[in-house]
Amino acid sequence: MQIELRYFASVREQVGIGQERVELPPSIHTVGALRQWLRERGGPWQAALADGRALRMAVDHAVARGDTAIADGCEVAFFPPVTGG
């Protein structure tokens, strides 16, 4: 399964790229599993996507949780929470 990843704001600054296309292992089916798999890259991904870090996720422009399913060709975005004012 191939998906498009997008990183925004401080997440983008930490990992050093704004987007990438990745081929996922067959065992990755949720946003939470994807986040863990990306953390296993180490380095900036481990810090940017760390457990306990306040982070928002979206699948195809809809807010997602860790148990949200992902599918071939989808877009998954990671971004810090924002507040309005």
TrEMBL record:
The keyword Nucleotide-binding applies. GO terms for biological process: Mo-molybdopterin cofactor biosynthetic process. InterPro entries: Beta-grasp_dom_sf, MOCS2A, Mopterin_synth/thiamin_S_b, ThiS/MoaD-like. Gene3D superfamilies: 3.10.20.30. Keywords: Nucleotide-binding. GO terms for molecular function: nucleotide binding. This is Molybdopterin synthase sulfur carrier subunit. It comes from Cupriavidus gilardii J11. The keyword Nucleotide-binding applies. Belongs to the MoaD family. NCBIfam families: moaD. GO terms for cellular component: molybdopterin adenylyltransferase complex. CDD domains: Ubl_MoaD.
